[in-house]
Specification:
Number of helices: 7
Shape: globular
Radius of gyration: 15 Å
Distance between the termini: 30 Å
CATH class: Alpha Beta
Number of strands: 4
CATH topology: Rossmann fold
Helix content: 40-55%
Strand order of the largest sheet: 2-1-3-4
Mean pLDDT: 90
Length: 176
Amino acid sequence: MRFVLIASLAIILMTLIPFDAHADRPTQIAFVDTGNTGRSVTATALAEALIRRGNLPIAVIGRAVDMNPFFVAPEANAAALLLKQGIDVSGYRAEQLTVNDVRHADLIITMTAKHRDAIIALYPEAQAKTHTIAEYATGQTDDVVDAYGKPMAVYEQVFAQISAYLPAVLQKSLRE
């Protein structure tokens, strides 16, 4: 219910933003976490839902900084929470962040400072466009909790954190 309220407010706010930063193409955002099976899947799926609802000129992808090629399906608890919102990620498969992703992304949003720092170490040219989700949304340092292998309550915390940050991330990305 809280997500629906946040999403509705975000759509209203975003319709007030004049769009001209990337008039020729959508703003391109990469959401990145460790394995691209939990937090970045959640951020990507929720962002896609907000983008569709608001008809926003934004394209998103989810990527990993350290993808395990033996574990590419979304984490079951993350998928279950998204399904409760009517979002089916059962066909989603993890992908490793590549130089091509970095080159094309207008914005790289990570779930933790460690993810951000790893990307900048690998791709120094991405420093100006790489931020944690909390930094970009609020200016505060606050990592999104890693729920991997933990109970559903921790996944619910992750879901709430990402849901709270996403409207500001999308809104701000349209202005830059």
